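tokens incoming
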């Protein structure tokens, strides 16, 4: 009878032990961590195209007794003319004084020169060391550089005066007050002056002139100095020539003489 009761008790204890082991095993084994979802791949950044700004053009600040003028130069359109102007303005180009005949080295040509010819509704002209517009060329003459896409279609054009011959650019220059299409193709445009300069040009062009001269003011405006601000690589100074005059003034301008050596007409 005791053996009979002992058997069920043993079976019960065995079952209890098995249950305990099973529970212990379940607790001992850590649950697997849920797998981390794969992150989407980062999209490739779009390639950036480098944008190179065009080199800034050099500018000329012309300091005069009447105020300052600011003109952007065009070395891409008139490389010889711009190089000539920069060399003469800075004194890095030699030139011969048309009055004394002395060769000048390291001396800015335009310092002290005047605007010797002024015509309302047309232009003002300067740059002749002799102050008359008819002096000998301080530098060797060079060819006109005309561009089909650069015309006298607006005020403020900065250009070389000449005698009417295509090889007579030198040192004299003029700044237009109004569009002057009759000059297209015959003169080297080597810069564009700003609106404030055009306003000053208008004032200078209306100064009282000596009737016995070719539109020379009684009290001409003088150029004190020209400063060149190099925004980009400027061409090397080339040989230049004495500038002359632009063709006859527009219809509104007073009657002018025909083109002559040393002044725009």
């Amino acid at each position: 009878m005791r053996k009979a009761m002992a058997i069920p008790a043993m079976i019960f204890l065995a079952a209890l032990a098995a249950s305990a082991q099973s529970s212990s095993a379940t607790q001992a084994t850590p649950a697997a961590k849920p797998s981390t979802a794969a992150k989407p791949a980062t999209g490739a950044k779009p390639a950036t195209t480098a944008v190179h700004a065009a080199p800034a053009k050099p500018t000329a600040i012309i300091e005069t007794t009447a105020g300052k003028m600011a003109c952007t130069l065009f070395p891409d359109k008139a490389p010889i003319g711009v190089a000539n102007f920069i060399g003469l303005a800075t004194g890095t180009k030699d030139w011969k004084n048309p009055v004394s005949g002395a060769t000048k080295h390291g001396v800015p040509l335009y310092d002290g020169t005047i605007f010797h010819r002024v015509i309302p509704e047309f232009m003002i002209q300067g740059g002749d060391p002799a102050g008359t517009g008819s002096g000998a060329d301080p530098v060797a003459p060079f060819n006109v550089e005309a561009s089909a896409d650069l015309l006298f279609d607006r005020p403020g054009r900065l250009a070389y005066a000449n005698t009417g011959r295509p090889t007579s650019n030198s040192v004299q220059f003029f700044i237009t007050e109004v569009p002057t299409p009759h000059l297209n193709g015959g003169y080297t445009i080597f810069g564009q002056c700003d609106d404030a300069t055009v306003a000053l040009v208008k004032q200078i062009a209306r100064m009282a002139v000596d009737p016995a001269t070719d539109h020379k003011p009684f009290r001409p405006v003088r150029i004190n100095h020209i400063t060149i601000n190099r925004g980009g690589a400027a061409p090397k100074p080339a040989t230049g020539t004495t500038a002359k005059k632009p063709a006859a003034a527009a219809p509104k301008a007073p009657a002018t003489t025909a083109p002559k050596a040393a002044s725009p007409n």
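note: The CA atoms of residues 115 and 126 lie 4 Å apart.
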